[in-house]
Specification:
The strands form nine sheets. The protein has a nine-stranded antiparallel sheet. The protein has 17 helices and 40 strands. By secondary structure, it is α+β, with helices and mostly antiparallel strands. Strand 2, helix 2 and strand 3 form a beta-alpha-beta unit. Helix 5 (about 105-115) crosses helix 6 and helix 7 (about 140-150) crosses helix 8.
């Protein structure tokens, strides 16, 4: 077994590998760029080596720097994590030449499966069901349109060396193919250094299901069940679960056996994933094989009890697989949410900045439910513009799917992040969605269920009463505290007037009364008493406790004369008044927001890649205005309505802050 390994990655996956290596008694070496000098993975590792500037192309993607770091520290092996160099055939070859072990598959397997075009050819040869498409290299947009016309719309344009949703576009017409081809090639070149793309049929109403495989250097290969990753936006997975609510045992076995056959055909000897696109009728087609550890691997670990990182390390050290196929048993259900630094109300555009507050829910097992949080950040750290916007992966495991979803919803409510925009409000709302809860999924779920984009819903019905009760409880605790500070307020035995309140949730009015009951107090709303039990104290970003006998977690963010309360995907500004204060507040004029309807504002911090219009030019709704690149993704900003460009404030190459004015219309 190795005594020291280097992790050629950053963020949560680097931290994840370090945890397993530490448990195995293996010392670890981290590498870091200028932007990651104070990163969590650097702090966790036994040693750390600086490898260059912030840009990945000058640090994490430079093979020679990784090899030199291994030599300088005496690292015997390298775990690549995912992304960066994990699927570069040249990387394990360079390590081998230097006498260093690659904790991953052979260069041959990476070459055969890492290339999306070649992998489909190999899959077809291994008699694996494949999607109709054109597997040759496409030279230009005209050829792409011709191919798409023959295949039939819709089609998927995909980078051959791609992954993580980058370099991918769905096209429903010839015009969309031409534009999607250009964007996919550009993203592929900047993200992977390879601008080849191919075109294949896009399966309507598809589901994304993948099989986890594990092989060793002695010819043994097994599969560890499946994961469903159908909840996606921009072809990027958002929610994953294991097992899939679609599959039965017969289909699972058939998919698993095909995945193993493909892995054996290329001599696969590590952890890898064979991805399939599945129809609602349980038909399935090979999509691609990822020759690395997947982002969503924790859900498989939770239902199988297998530490995939440990198995990868053992296999790389030459050990035989410790499991046979008959040993693999699936237990319970696991759900994973990807916590991203992005603004869901702005079409999930990236957000950067400092994590002023970062308080994840408590990890561990209680009453048969396990909470796990894989992360690479910490409170006070910074989300950089240079890398993927993932903050953490929140995983819950329970005996049933329903219980795992309930646990995930509670854990999301207890996850407090401030300083940047994040997608927890969307994830929380999704956990309450009836279609998600019923398992009626497809990769078009987000587009179909949120066609106008996501807006944080206002609380209604019972949810509103819960927030009103919690707001009242917070106000009551704060008032109790004030009573004990220099006699600011009357003692606890105050007259009833002091216990009558009006809770304003946005514009909705809730009249409440605080009542003493045995063991604490209750909030009376519309004649119904809600007993409150909580140890919350002022300053905590999450209120946790019992409301009406149910366990509740509510995020609390102070604002002027009130607080923002968020729970179960809903959120509202809450202000607690006495009856007199409420009457006076109703007379206050409302603030009028500034009119920005004639301006194009930058929706996220990013780099202006292209300006597509000129001053004086007339534009139509939907016409491309400019391209802004953020976190390795190119975002086309389009006109919302017909108009005329009056003035352009930005130019190509400018780095813009969020809400910076790009152009103005007449």
């Amino acid at each position: 077994m190795f005594s020291k390994i280097l992790i050629a990655n950053r963020g949560e996956i680097a931290c994840r590998v370090i945890k397993t290596a530490r448990r195995m008694g293996i010392k670890t070496v981290a590498v870091y760029s200028d932007a990651d000098r104070d990163a969590l993975h650097v702090e966790m590792a036994d040693e750390a080596v600086h490898i260059g500037p912030a840009a990945a192309a000058e640090s994490y993607l430079v093979i020679d720097k990784i090899v030199e770091a291994c030599k300088a520290t005496g690292a015997e092996a390298v775990h690549p994590g995912y992304g960066f160099l994990s699927e570069r055939e040249a990387f394990p070859k360079a390590l081998e030449a230097a006498g260093i072990v690659f904790i991953g598959p052979t260069p041959h397997a990476i070459a055969a499966m890492g290339d999306k075009i070649e992998s489909k050819k190999a899959a077809a040869a291994a008699k694996v069901s494949t999607v109709p498409g054109y597997l040759g290299v496409i030279e230009g947009p005209e050829q792409a349109v011709t191919i798409a016309d023959k295949i039939g719309y819709p089609v998927m344009i995909k980078a051959s060396a791609g992954g993580g949703g980058k370099g991918m576009r769905i096209a429903y017409s010839a015009d969309e193919v031409a534009e999607g081809f250009a964007r996919a090639k550009s993203e592929a070149a900047s993200s992977f250094g390879d601008d080849r793309v191919f075109v294949e049929k896009f399966i309507t109403d598809p589901r994304h299901i993948e099989i986890q495989v594990l092989g060793d250097k002695h010819g043994n290969v097994i599969y560890l069940g499946e994961r469903e990753c159908s909840i996606q936006r921009r072809n990027q997975k958002v929610i994953e679960e294991a097992p899939s609510p679609l599959l039965d045992e017969a289909t699972r076995k058939l998919m698993g056996e095909q995945a193993v056959a493909l892995a054996k055909a290329v001599g696969y000897d590590s952890a890898g994933t064979v991805e399939f696109v599945a129809g609602q009728d349980k038909s399935f087609y090979f999509l691609e094989m990822n020759t690395r550890l997947q982002v969503e691997h924790p859900v498989t670990e939770m239902i199988t009890g297998v530490d995939l990182v440990e198995e990868m390390i053992r296999v790389a050290a030459g050990e035989t697989l410790r499991l046979k196929q008959s040993d693999v048993t699936l237990r319970g259900w696991a759900v994973e949410s990807r916590i991203y630094a992005e603004d869901p109300v702005r079409n999930f555009l990236p957000s950067t900045g400092r994590l002023v507050t970062y308080r994840p829910p408590q990890e561990g097992e209680e009453h048969g439910v396990t909470v796990r949080n894989d992360t690479g950040v910490y409170e006070g750290g910074e989300i950089s513009i240079y890398y993927d916007p993932m903050i953490a992966k929140l995983v819950t495991h329970a005996p049933t799917r329903e219980e795992a979803i309930t646990a995930q919803a509670t854990a999301l409510d207890a996850f407090a992040i401030e300083g940047i925009r994040h997608n927890i409000p969307f994830l929380s709302a999704l956990m309450q969605h009836p279609r998600w809860q019923s398992g009626q999924l497809s990769t078009g779920f987000i587009a179909e269920e949120f066609p106008g984009g996501f807006q944080v819903p206002t609380p209604e019905g019972e949810a509103a009463h819960v927030l009103a009760a919690v707001g009242s409880a917070i106000d009551h605790v704060q008032n109790e505290r004030k009573r004990h500070i220099s006699g600011q307020m009357r003692p606890h035995a105050a007259v009833k007037f002091d216990r009558e309140r009006v809770v304003m949730l946005g514009r909705d009015r809730h009249e409440v009364t605080i009542e003493d009951i045995e063991g604490g107090f209750a909030v009376n709303i519309s004649g119904e008493a809600w007993p409150i039990v909580s140890s919350w104290h002022p300053g905590q970003p999450v209120w946790t406790g019992q409301v009406g006998g149910k366990t509740v977690a509510v995020q609390v963010r102070p604002i002027l004369n009130g607080m923002i309360l968020s729970h179960a995907g809903a959120s509202a500004e809450a202000r607690v008044y006495t009856r007199r204060e409420a009457a006076l507040a109703a007379l206050m004029p409302e603030k009028v927001e500034a009119d920005t309807s004639k301006k194009l504002l930058c929706p996220m911090p990013g780099l202006v890649k292209a300006i597509s219009v000129k001053p004086g030019q007339e534009v139509k709704a939907g016409e491309a205005l400019c391209i802004v690149e953020a976190m390795k993704m190119e975002n086309v900003l389009r006109a919302e309505r017909d108009g005329t460009v009056a003035k352009i404030y930005a130019k190509e190459g400018d780095s813009l802050a969020v809400d910076a004015t790009i152009m103005e219309f007449a």
